[in-house]
Amino acid sequence: MEPNAPENQTPPTNPEPATNPMPPQAEAPVTPTAPEATTPVTPSPAEPASQAAPVPAGDSNKLPSAFSLFKPSWEAVKLNLATFIVLGLLSGALYAIFAITLLATQKNIASAGNLSGQTFAAFAGFGLFALVWAVIFGPAMVYVQLKSATVTKVAVADALKTGVHYALKFLGLTIVMGLVIAIGFLLLIVPGFFMLKRYILAPYFLVDKNLGIMEAMNQSAEASKKYSSALWGLIGVTFLISLPGIIPVLGAIVSALLGIAYYCAPAVRYREVTTGEPSVAVK
């Protein structure tokens, strides 16, 4: 007889069969794609600064017009404005004293009927001093113009020192040029303008290259042949600047302001003629 099973015995339950997980879907093999062919970008070189091609000797048509010299001339004037002002004030004060002395002398002659020895000595002495100063002042200003055209600062002392150095040669050049141009104007006026154009750059050649009187005039004459139209333009604009001065007060002010702005134009044109290329400020 089989033994009775215990009452509290729970019959074993069959565990649920393990659920088979879904097999991972086989990922489609990724076919490696070749990298897109990219066109290599060649770096563009930096654009060079615009430079004007050198002007062949004698090709004056390649130089800028004389009106375009206003900008580089004014830039040159501003660079050494203080030096120009000091030299101008010294020169102006000197000539003012000279004019006052002259008027006093004339008054003395009118009242006394003759010229006293003291007045004559003062007048002659101051006149000689004014002449010497004018001779020093001329090359000094030309020197400052030349340095300004090449973007170089100049002290007043250096300008006066240069003026003293070139005083005698500058005086001789002034006398010779004055006679030649005056004779040209006496010969029906037109030859005078041609002489002016021929020797307008002579003072700059003399100071810049330390030349003799005749050599400076010869080099200026040679330059005037090669760059005839460029120099005629310089003379023409200078003449036009003086025209407003005919009108009282306002016209004189306009003419003076234009003259100041154009004061270094001859030096700028001299640099263009001697280098064969336009001024940097014009490019």
- The average pLDDT is 78
Portion in beta strands: under 5%
Total number of β-strand segments?
A: 0
Biggest β-sheet description: none
| Tally of distinct domains | 1
Class by alpha and beta content: mainly alpha
What is the first-to-last residue Cα distance? 131 Å
Shape: globular
Poorly predicted runs are: 1-58
Could you give the order of the helices and strands? HHHHHHHHHHH
**Rg, nearest Å:** 43 Å
Total of helices: 11
Can you give the helix content as a percent range? Answer: 55-70%
Structural overview:
- The protein is globular.
- It has 283 residues and is mostly helical.
- The protein has one domain.
- It contains eleven helices and no strands.
Layout of helices and strands:
Layout: H1 70-79, H2 81-112, H3 117-149, H4 156-165, H5 167-186, H6 190-199, H7 202-209, H8 213-226, H9 228-242, H10 250-261, H11 265-275
Helix pairs in contact: 1-3, 2-3, 3-4, 3-5, 3-7, 3-11, 5-6, 5-7, 7-8
Short description:
The chain is mostly helical and 283 residues long. Helix 3 crosses helix 4, helix 3 crosses helix 11 and helix 7 crosses helix 8.
